[in-house]
Specification:
Rossmann fold; 3-stranded antiparallel beta sheet; 9 strands; alpha/beta; 6-stranded mixed beta sheet; 229 residues; globular; 7 helices
């Protein structure tokens, strides 16, 4: 899928003007204010009313949030009601819910619990199951491993890779965590001030960055400094 001429504007000011191709899995990386969150909101149809969007997309499906496009947030608590049991937060057939729980490695007995009774890793897997309920073509990920401990982070990355093979969806991974991005994505797109400054195969960009900006991002990330949306 190729997304081109994604322009996000307030009046006459162009905030984001980028183009990228999601062949399989793409990491969108940049410092705070680079335009990552605006790009996600644009693809989800969640831009503020004062912003206008000029979007061209070449793909075999329409970008429809909740149908062909699913979203996994950074904090799973934002997607779940803490006062409602897990099984009541799915709006699909119970057997389908159990199938999804099997696919993400969760026990069926968790369906009768409230979100605060689950661990962060379990909650993230619940949200992943919800995102897959409509068989999306594109999965948007907003730093879904940020709040997890290292071992759980690896487990979620491995799970997403397995699910992509099984379900055949494409992924756009918005993150500051280049290590996780490298483990999950085949391609990377580095943006600065709303424009693409470098893109290509993940291993190529990580090992031989062409711009100082990309070098700084990589060095800072591996030094445990974080660049957030």
């Amino acid at each position: 899928m190729k997304i081109s001429k994604l322009k996000i504007m307030i009046n006459k000011d162009v905030l984001v003007n980028i183009a990228f191709d999601i062949a399989s899995s793409l990491a969108l990386v940049g410092q705070s204010g680079s335009g990552k969150s605006l790009t996600l909101k644009a693809l989800l149809g969640m831009l503020p009313s004062e912003m206008s969007l000029d979007l061209e997309c070449s793909s075999d499906f329409e970008l429809i949030a909740g149908k062909s496009v699913a979203f996994i947030p950074q904090n799973p608590f934002t997607a779940l009601s803490p006062l409602t049991k897990i099984n009541k937060q799915f709006f699909i057939d119970e057997n389908r819910v159990k199938e999804l729980f099997d696919s993400v490695g969760l026990s069926h007995d968790l369906l009768d619990r409230f979100p605060p009774e689950l661990s962060g890793g379990q909650l993230q897997r619940v949200v992943i199951a919800m995102a897959l309920s409509n068989k999306p073509k594109l999965l948007l990920l907003d730093e879904p491993t940020t709040a997890l401990d290292p071992s759980t982070r690896v487990m979620i990355i491995d799970l997403l890779k397995t699910l992509q093979i099984q379900e055949g969806f494409k992924m756009l991974f918005v993150t500051h965590d280049i290590v996780s991005a490298k483990n999950l994505c085949k391609h990377i797109c580095v943006i600065k001030e709303g424009k693409v400054i470098e893109s290509g195969l993940m291993d190529t960009v990580i090992t031989s960055p062409k711009t100082d900006y990309t070098k700084i991002l990589i060095e800072a990330n591996f030094a445990n400094r974080e660049f957030r949306i």
